[in-house]
Amino acid sequence: MPGGTAWRGAPEPGRDGGELLARVDLAEVVAAVGHLLHAAGVPVTPERSGRFARAVTLARPATLDELYWAGRVTLLGGADQVPVYDAVFGQVFRGRVDVADRRGQEPSGLAAAPRARPTPVDRAPTRAGATAGPPPAPRVMTPTGGSPGDEAVAEGADVLAAASPEERLGHTDLAALTDDELAALRPLLAALRWAAPRRPGRRTTRHRRGRRLDLRATLRSARRTGGDPVRRIARRRVDRPRRLVLLADVSGSMAPYARAWLHLLHGAVRAARADAFVFATRLTRLTRALATSDPDAALRRATAAAPDWSGGTRIGAALAAFVDRHGRRGVARGAVVVIVSDGWDTGDPAVVGEQMARLARLAHRIVWVNPRRAAPGYRPLVGGMAAALPHVDAFVSGHTAAALAEVVAAIGDPG
User: Does pTM surpass 0.85?
Assistant: First the structure.
C-alpha cells in the first residue's frame, strides 16, 4: 500500500459503509495515506493518523467522497496542502477516483498515471491479500517543475548523502521531524542565543565617559589634593536586557510545531530568563514548569500544565488574558513579545486586532512567527492574522532550525 497500490477492496460509490470497512484493512489504509503524505512533504503526525482512523470508524463512509473529506479535515493543517493530498488520495485509489476532476479542476495526473510493470517485489503478498510495491523513490524536482529520470534521482540521493545529519535536519520542516530527529536536533536548538535588545537601567556605575557627576566620590577623592577636586568621577546608567516574553500556539493546527517550540521555550527560559506562555482555548503560563534543568522533565511538566493542548484556537481571548493578568503588571511593559501562531482563530478577528493594539502600546517590539509564511504564494489573508499584522514589528516563518536564526535576529533588533 505505501507504494501506491490501489485499494482493491474499495467498492464503487454508493455501497454500504459497513461493507467498505469490512473488506479492507483500516490500519493499512490509514498508514498508507499518512506515509505517502509525509513523503510528499505534508507534516502528518501519528496523532493525525489516529484521528483519521477514529473519524473513519465513527463516520463509516459509504463512498470515496466521504472518505476523502474525512481524511482532508483530519490530516491536513493548511489549505496549501490540499493539492498534495488530492494527488496522494488519487495514488492510493488509482483507477477508482480522481478528486480533482470531481471538484472541477484539472486532473491531478498522479491518479491517472500508467501502472508500471510489476516486479518480483510487487508480487509479495500483504496481510490484506493485495500486492504492495516498493516505497516510492525520492522525487527530485527540476527547475521547470518536472520529474527527471532515474539518473536525476540517483544524483539527488548522492547530494543528500553528502550533507551532514545536522545540516539536513536544520533545513527540515520542524513539523516533519520525528521524535528521534527532534532529539538529535536538541543540541542545535539549545545553542541558540536568545539575546534581547538592551535598555538603560535605573542603576548607575562608575565610568570614565559617564555624563553624570558622582559628587560623593569626587569629594572623597578631593581629600587627597587638599580639597581641590582635581579628579572628577562620573557615572552612567547600566544597560540591561529587555524582558523576553514568548507566547506559543499549541492548538490543533499548530500541534506539529508545538513539540519543537517547547524545546525552544525551555532554552529561552533557561538562557535568557524569558517568560513562557502557551495558549489554545485558554492561556497557560509555563515559566516555572520549564525552569528545571532536565529538559525531559520540563517538557512533561509543561505538557501536563496545558489542558487544552491540540484543542481549538482563541487568539483574541488568550491575548486579552495575557494583557489583563500579566501585561499591566510589567511582564510585557517594554518587553520583546514573540507570538508563535498560524493566525487561525475561531473567534472574532476584531478582538484579535483590538488586543494586539493594546499589546503594542505596552511592548517594545512584537515578533510574530508563522510557519505557514514559508509556503510558496502565502498571503496573510486569514482573519486573525490579517487583523494582527498591522501591529507586528517583524513577521518571520521559523519553520526550520535554520530559519530560527531569522527569529533570533528579529528579537535582537533594537528597532
Answer: no
